[in-house]
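Format notes (please read before filing issues)

Several people have asked whether sequences and structure tokens are stored in separate files. They are not. Every record keeps both together, in the order shown below: the sequence lines, then the token lines. Line labels are part of the format and must not be stripped during preprocessing.
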Amino acid sequence: GVVYNYDQEGVHRAGSGWEQCISIPLVQPDMWELLQQWDDLLEEFSLEEAWLPHRYEEQQHNCYTFALAFVNRVRQGRGREALSKAQFTERFLIPHTREASRYLTLHQELAHRDFYIVPLPEQEQDS
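Then the structure lines:
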């Protein structure tokens, strides 16, 4: 997909260059109508005056602010409470970064040791 980010040059849309990032699912699979609107909502949001380049401020009005403001806009549109930075970080970011950290640690251990992974018999038949 396309990644939106915000920095001192304004909002950027990138189809590549984010392969090393962590994707955090924010929309439940049963929210089909929201999934269909997501791209349009994000595009419309990204064009707002709040995200012009001159408004960028490294500590207080940055890419994290952009992402959280968008999430809160969607939440409020669905009648839900806005999240603070602390709530968003605790509820969404920390669990996924912990999981990614465990995965990366395991990957590093496997890469630096002599391991051979053998497929299970049912996996051999499927391929």
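For reference, the curators noted about this record: Residues 9 and 53 are 5 Å apart (CA to CA). Strands lie at 3-7, 10-14.
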